[in-house]
## 1
Amino acid sequence: MSKPIEAFIFDLDGVITDTAEYHFLAWKELAKDIGITFTKEDNEELKGISRMESLEKILKLGGKENDFSKEEKEQLAAKKNEHYLTLIQNITPDDILPGIKPLIEEIKKHGLKLGLASVSKNAIAVMESLGLKDKFDVIVDAAKIQHGKPDPEIFLTAAKLLNVETAACIGLEDAAAGVDSIKGAKMFAVGVGSEETLRKADIVYSKTELLSYGNIIREFEGA
């Protein structure tokens, strides 16, 4: 029997809103600038990992992993972020994925805590644009951690700041690295996406509109 539920901790990209397309377009623009062809298929490999790790993967893809100094790589990552910030200026509450608002309302109605665990350095700006920042008790982004997903640090940090035990938390993720992070933190994992990709999750929903507070709680209590 699990501990009574105290908190839900959400990933941002692909769970609350789909900024994946904006990240893809920003990386594609950067890759083009340095002579690398970057496709949507390539972009799948970047899900849930940090900006610098993503850059390393793209450079390796183009056989340019040894072409840039550490400082130059940091400049490239900053340039990608500039592209991304320009693109996300158009985000509004209409960009919240289906089913997320009702789920958040149910969580708040039951007096549970809400945390965000996103490796995006722009998480706070995106949450403000979505009109959701004030609904969350804690927002943990890349600035607050040393290790990105799949390391459990981001979910452990969110639980610590929420002042709850990890066994009393439910984490929501759309990436395999994120699910690994949740499970590494000894939390109950809800996956959004493909069952094959998210097979380590305790329960998987193919899309956000199918998320059910009652069903998630039943699964959690039965775990």
Note: The first strand starts at residue 7 and ends at 10.
## 2
Amino acid sequence: MQLIRQLRQEIRQLPHKYINPASLQFRLTLEIVILSTLGLSSVGIWTSWKMQQILIATHTQNVEYIAARFPRDVELYSEMLPIAAGLQKTINNVSVPGLLIWVKSPDNHLLAQSADLDSAFTATTELMSLAEMPLKPQVYQVRDRYLVLYEGTVTVKGKALGKVYMAQDVTADQHELISAIRSLTIVCLLAMVGMMMAMTIRIRRSLQPLQEMSQMAGIISADDLKEAKLQLRHAPSEVKELAQTFNMMLSRLSDSWEQQRQFVSNVSHELRTPLTIVYGYLQSLLRRSTNLNDYQREALETATSEADRTIGLLQDLLNLARADSGYMQFHLEPLVLNNLVLEVVGMTEKFSSRSLTVNAKKQIEVIADRDRLKQVLINIIDNAVKYSELNQPITIDLESSDRQAIIRVSDRGVGIPLQDQSRIFERFYRVDEARARFAGEEQSGGHGLGLAIVKTLLEGMDGQITVQSKPGEGSTFTIVLPMR
């Protein structure tokens, strides 16, 4: 349950405004926004076109009606008046507000026109030139006016008098249409923004269970396998099925990990006793035998060394198995760190003939298990000796900060490559062959468990360990422990 609460807290703290083009949430949102934009744009364009066509059709029908009666009226007035007078009389009779009419002869002479054509329209010449072009059922813009144009033929008694041109002024209606289209565009944009925000929130909530699963898979450890359960209440059925499968997988992994730890513990325990007996007999044989030749003595020494190494490996495995199972006991007590460090340094100088420097400005007391901490210091200092030349200095600095004791073990040895620094505390992980050859691990039998045990022991005492290193310049291991 504690893992689940920690997971949910981390998810709440994620930056929701972070945009990741490779994420499923970003792609779904982008695709839906694009489709919605295309859909709303298509609807808006079609609506605008349809409204324009309705405007054109409404005014075109009115003009066509007037154009259909225009020849009859001309023929009627021509029986009583001259042709020019009949044309003008007809124009005056059929004119309505906003409608401009003019008639031209076949030789392009103006025969008659609306009385207010010149006064109402400042671009009369431009209008007449436009009307003589092939016309389409659409709204034409001339200067600041919008017009629907029409062209027809005028015949009297079977004789063509010329062509009649009509221009219906729809400026006011066109302005209203443009205003409506702008309003429609704004509404569509607001709708798209609202839909995008709503879809982003909805998609984020729908994918939240997958994010929880991803976060849990990223932070889960072997110790959390039993308690790690993903609980989804308001998720789709497909995601719930995936979560159930995920929980079943965690359960199987937990069982497998427990069986593995139990197997390692049993094997280590069962093999350690006979190997210890073998080791004892080999040592006794070496001490008491006086008639061995050089070859036999070398063989016995090699067997004794390998037995001792194997016993150490089994002891390390047994310690790790106990730590994983929670059976490793720590006797935490106040102790003076300076004294323990000096003790370990003295032992190292005695057996390695190396000179080590301890820097401490004051006496530091910590809460730790003396034997476990001594094992940690021996391991770290032994590594510094092993991976540095005889003439290179090794320093141990003791400091304190914020109720924490800090131990820094620094050497000027071969160093650790950057790609290996994050993994050297893993079990059975060994750095590259060049570092191993420098330390003579082919002969010494390093098995990659030392630093893993150090990390496990320190965590059991509420401590931690980190490393900083550069190849060819050396390494610094930093141990942090709680102070008294």
Note: Residues 45-178 form a domain with the Beta-Lactamase fold (CATH 3.30.450.20).
## 3
Amino acid sequence: MALNIPGGEFLTGSLVILLIIVIITIISLGGVIAEYTSRRKVPVGTIRDLIYDINAAGSVEELKNIISDAKIPKSQKKVLTEIASSEALGNTSREALARKLFEFEEEKTLDNLQKTDIITRIGPTLGLMGTLIPMGPGLAALGAGDINTLASSLTVAFNTTIVGIGSGALCYVLGKIRSGWYDRYLSDLDALIDAVLDYMNK
């Protein structure tokens, strides 16, 4: 339903999208909080010791046990175990498998960041549109002495601006937090994959 201000019919679609953005932003905030409480922070020392343990493994089965007992995320264990189980492959094929598994993990992290990245860009843009569209009719109403229409236009303009910029700013922060987590996750995984490949290619 169009808003009861001049130009309001053009704002209806933008406000619906802004409402969806607010809902997605709230869900994303909850997701980050849940991820923070459940994620395992892996110290650099743990990765270092695990690399030494991998290198010192006496057999592939021992290597798998080391990976299974390691204090790292389950998703990393799954990747490393799959590489350790590739005894039938040649070195080149094993490295290709490792590269593909790493790329898959990288794609998953990018997918998680995509929603907040989109809102970071679209939110302020829609907020600006919601500001500018009613300002023209509002100023025209001011010239005609229609204060009520001007007040309605300004209210909509300010509200859409706040919602758009606020959603974009919050998603920017959430994206930065997650990006830091995922960069560390991928860096650790890359180092551990290299260690397993080095052992398997002996």
Note: Residues 120 and 168 are 4 Å apart (CA to CA).
## 4
Amino acid sequence: MAETRKASRFIVPVAVAGVAAATIGLVPALAASGDPDLPEITAQQLIEKIAASDTQTLSGTFRISTDLGLPLGGLTSALGGIGGAGGDSSADPSAKLTELVSGSHTLRIAADGPERQRLTLLDGSDEYSLIHNGDDVWAYDSKSDEVFHEKAPADAGAPDAEKHAPKDKELPGTPKQLADEVLKAAGDTTSITVDGTAKVAGRDAYQLVIKPKQAGSTVASVKIAVDAANGTPLKFTLNSVEGGKPVVDAGFTKIDFSKPAASDFTFKAPEGAKVTEGAAEKAAEEAEGAKGNPFGDELPGGLGEAFGLGAGTGKDGVNVIGEGWTAIARLDTGAPTPKTDEAPKEVQGLLDSLGDKVDGEFGSGTVFKTKIVNALLTDDGKVYVGAVTKDALVNAANADK
């Protein structure tokens, strides 16, 4: 689960500037006429505008909706909590922020450079707040009246701070974060065009459209609404080839680029609230241990990390088949897959609803599917997973035989 790296949740990282070179070979597409009426711009120019954006202060509200197409709406959240690092406090972000993986949520955010950020997750009458202010990271869950606190990493101001910042303290799912991940991975397997304009949170914006050139990907398109004035991504939409609701739809409904009040980043634990002190060192070690997406930059949009494929990968036995949007990670567990007919009846029903039985030259297995990430578990213990269709997984397993 992606959550708040100190400096770059709201500042476009320098790495995005390299996207310009990766897209030189693309045929420039001019913005279509629309409302608002903005000057024409090429995809190359718009990417350069995003890379040059120096937005460091903002506040506003945004809405994030996630629809993985799972038969059980709360399944992802339930799975996200298994083995989580923050079991001692309901306010620990490593546990709480997994809720954003499913459903629709409204969030308020504020940022004042790399040292101060605040996110508030609104859930009915309850609120969950995550505040980073200098050396401190605070989280408060009003429902349980619990507080989580830990010191920010001492090297957070260093250029490589993101490598050491605890992953479970990162603000999740902002349009800019999602856009950065896609643009960093753009290359020859990707088509990037400008498709008209839009009004987002009262701001004039261009629509940047990113599509796979390869057949077999589950990604139909990624659309990023970019502020015409300052290059800040305002809205991010990830669509599946299955159609229907977007897999991820995250966009600002209100935004203000002026400097937030200093009081937005101050926090004092309410009287009587349970306060849990976290261990930044332990979180950093866990983040380091979980690091390593087998796709690397070969899966555009950081889809591997976004849907948990980074956890426990990057170890011996993981290989990557293909490249770009159709990259598939292969893992040989060395153990036959347990037969579902030997599992309890309730478990059998769940597995059957999630998976499709498949056969091929590789033998037989089950494809477990969402709208964007699918996985083939063969009966002899191999796992093939990627943002690809069921047929692509079966073909990869056949070719790997």
Note: Confidence is low (pLDDT under 50) at residues 1-34, 72-86, 155-172, 287-316.
